[in-house]
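Annex B, item 7. Sequence and structure tokens for protein A, then protein B.
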Amino acid sequence: MAVRLRGTEDSGLPDGAVLALSLAGLVAGWMLLSWLVGDESVLAGPVAVWSVIVDQIRSGEMTFHTMTTFGRVCAAFFLSMTMGTLLGITLGLMPRVNRWVDPWVIFFLNLPALVVIVLCYLWIGLNEAAAIVAVSINKTAMVAVTIREGVRSMDPKIADMANVYRMGLGMRCRHVWLPQLAPFFSAGVRNGLAVIWKIVLVVEFLGRPDGVGFMIHLYFQLFDIAHVLAYSLVFVAIMLVIEHVLVQPWESRAARWRVRSS
């Protein structure tokens, strides 16, 4: 059975063209909706928002606040991915431990992000540590569940083959575990980036003096729709670039072994 990687479908157009046309359709729909509304104080159009983005970049405001948020996203992402991966592997390999720890995972998985943020601010203070810890706690359980299911789904026959060839720990990680866990890692990374930056905005909205969330809060108070959309869309654009430049190519390379074995 033939298996196709992402981006190899015979659609007649390269992936870049499909992406550009898709985003152009989204912008066209936005322009149409803005025109139908007819009031930029309710829904600013793409031209107005682009003008705000250019002005904010020239002033240096948008660059500063966007990079501040991006730094918090990266710190919380690496912390939650590290803790969640270690926890998920442990729970997947040790059913007895999973039996006792699983209720804790479910508890943190369903604990509202707003509650965690408020508690961290109350316990730790209105500082960077509280912001990053709050976001990491919210995401770690989700990563742990994803990686745990990946460990559970690994083919025992491949592990038996590794035993026959007496592979060392490094060889097992590279050739046995990582290829099978790659789809689950990519799912964790994709969901992690999508969820973490949204939680970071809430953290900044509630208790930080800088960042995209702080600026959205500021312009929300001023009822300035164009600035709210400008700061939101710039960060969404950064996430799109990460998705298409880093995540998807890595996911395709990691899945090549499945194509060869099909």
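Protein B:
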Amino acid sequence: MTQLVVQHYTQPTARRHLWTGMAMAAVALAFGLEQSIHWLAAHPMAAKGLEASLLAGLATGLGALPVLFLRRPSARLMAPMLGLAGGMMLAASLFSLLVPAVQTVAASPAPWLLGGITAAAFLAGVAMMQRIDRRLPHTHVEELEASGMQPHVALVVAAIALHNVPEGLAVGVAAASGADHGMTLGIALQNIPEGWIVASAMLALGAAPIRAALIALGTGLVEPVGGLFGVVASTMAGATLPLALAAAAGAMLWVVSHELIPASHRPGREAAGTAGLAAGFAVMTVLAAAF
């Protein structure tokens, strides 16, 4: 496509090919959207899962709004904020994903066999995130201040996307399977302080406040991408739905253990990070009980 655009300006005779290609792409996009709408209409729970992941992602943009009026959150405040997010994600992976999977397996004719397979799916979710983390170059936002480095913005955005995809995946799977139990609301709530942290990191990298808020919103909108995979997985899973739930739980647990707990428990901030973690778990417990 890039070569066609170049030829459009250097060789006027190539314009016909450029416009033909663009027309074909437009028709393909329109056809894909039409088929997607029909598919979602035929699968209302899938539409619910996609909507849930979108709402959770938009909460990140809502949390970024304070950078337009306030300063960055202090290092003292970062620990409980990250701990809160970790606690809510940890509880969500348990109440909305792993527990429903275990309950379904326990009621099956072969709980030992299916229990082992479900555990393997859980570990597969962890391994998938570990592999992506190793292959995708990124820089964590919580390391900017400690390192004093100024990495490329794309590396920071890549780290945030790595964090948000399993969130969207988990929300999509849980909502589409009817096992939400307050997970969408919980992830949306924890995305609000996360949006402030992300936008603040963009400010530290020299972005203007409006641009920082828009970047934070854009990273939140990565969640519906993960949500789409979760919706498709839960819709096609059928009897293997516990495996999809367990894999999503493993991906969420990896994010909590690998990123949020270490970031919130830096030397001198352990107590604040633990308090935030416990508070987040408690909030998600209430939401799971209420929904």
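Comment on protein B: The first helix runs from residue 2 to 10.
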